[in-house]
């Protein structure tokens, strides 16, 4: 029989592995190191949340070897947080852009790691305007740019078609990417659809949503709770429509914490436990209680004890870290 220490271990592991990240397009230009201060504050306040921050100097890395001094200082500040992953923006024109120019942009981002004075290492690539169709040529195109990024020490690859992948194409696209944005639309649109219909089956943990035009008075927590309940890989809401402001970030991060606290069987850092883990924990707890309880304990009482035991387990969150981060 599995011991209760196994139950605690399963809970702890699940809370880390299944966490939904914040995928933040940060397209504003940092005039000085205070421009991105909402991001720094959120990352520092929530070390148990992974922030995947997409930077975009000039619809890509720009033409220079390194960005300017203000951009360097701001990216270095992002890299000082162990729970922040900085990802470079590159558009693909839905698979029509010359692939050699994309590889040049990838090489430029990769070379940022050679800058000596500051840590401006980029940890991955966000391929915007990604194709979604079940077309062998386009699938091969995205596989090639993904491999180019990964072989250039940019291991995290995100595709953004902005909508659900075409039937029959999901397996190949998801094999090439670590995360795919399958829903990028307005907050009002999200609240009017059935979310499960917008994400490819069996790929929830590698899918992301980006919602724009979400008023600061909107119910961010409900969206985050839904994303975590689905087991999505990442989510973000912005009150703007161009990702030029991070005004909503503090509310998004707070919603992650609140939604986590409202989820039975999850830690303050994690998302809903996978059903297999919950089933194992519940059945183990029932067996343990049943084997030690007196004969007068009823099934109802055992169920109550089991649910209470699971819901009151406290799991210490382990802050996210990636290889290119420097601890702050």
Automatic annotation (TrEMBL):
Keyword match Signal: yes
Keyword Amino-acid biosynthesis among record annotations: no
Keywords linked to the UniProt accession: Signal
Signal peptide: 1-19
Listed name of the protein: Cell surface spherulin 4-like protein
Organism encoding this protein: Penicillium atrosanguineum
């Amino acid at each position: 029989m599995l011991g209760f220490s196994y139950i605690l271990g399963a809970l702890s592991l699940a809370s880390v592995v299944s966490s939904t990240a914040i995928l933040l397009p940060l397209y504003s230009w940092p005039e000085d190191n205070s421009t991105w201060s909402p991001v720094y504050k959120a990352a520092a306040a929530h070390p148990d949340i992974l922030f995947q921050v997409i930077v975009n100097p000039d619809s890509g890395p720009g033409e220079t070897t390194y960005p300017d001094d203000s951009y360097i200082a701001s990216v270095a500040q992002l890299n000082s947080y162990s729970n922040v992953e900085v990802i470079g923006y590159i558009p693909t024109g839905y698979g029509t852009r010359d692939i050699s120019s994309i590889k040049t942009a990838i090489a430029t981002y990769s070379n940022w790691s050679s800058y000596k004075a500051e840590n401006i290492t980029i940890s991955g690539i966000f391929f915007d305007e990604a194709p979604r169709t079940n077309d062998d040529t386009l699938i091969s195109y995205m596989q090639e740019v993904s491999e180019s990024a990964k072989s250039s020490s940019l291991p995290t690859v995100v595709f953004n078609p902005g909508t659900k992948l075409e039937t029959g194409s999901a397996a190949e696209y998801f094999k090439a990417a670590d995360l795919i944005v399958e829903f990028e639309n307005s907050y009002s649109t999200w609240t009017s659809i059935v979310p499960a219909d917008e994400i490819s089956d069996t790929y929830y943990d590698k899918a992301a949503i980006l919602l724009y035009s979400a008023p600061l008075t909107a119910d961010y927590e409900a969206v985050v709770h839904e994303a975590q309940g689905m087991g999505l890989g990442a989510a973000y809401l912005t009150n703007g429509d161009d990702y030029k402001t991070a005004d909503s970030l503090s509310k998004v991060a707070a919603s992650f914490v609140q939604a986590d606290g409202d989820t039975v069987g999850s830690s303050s850092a994690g998302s809903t436990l996978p059903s297999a883990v919950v089933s194992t924990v519940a059945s183990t707890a029932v067996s343990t209680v049943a084997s030690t309880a007196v004969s007068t304990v009823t099934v109802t009482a055992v169920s109550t004890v089991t649910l209470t035991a699971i819901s009151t387990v406290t799991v210490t969150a382990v802050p996210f870290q990636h290889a290119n981060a420097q601890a702050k």
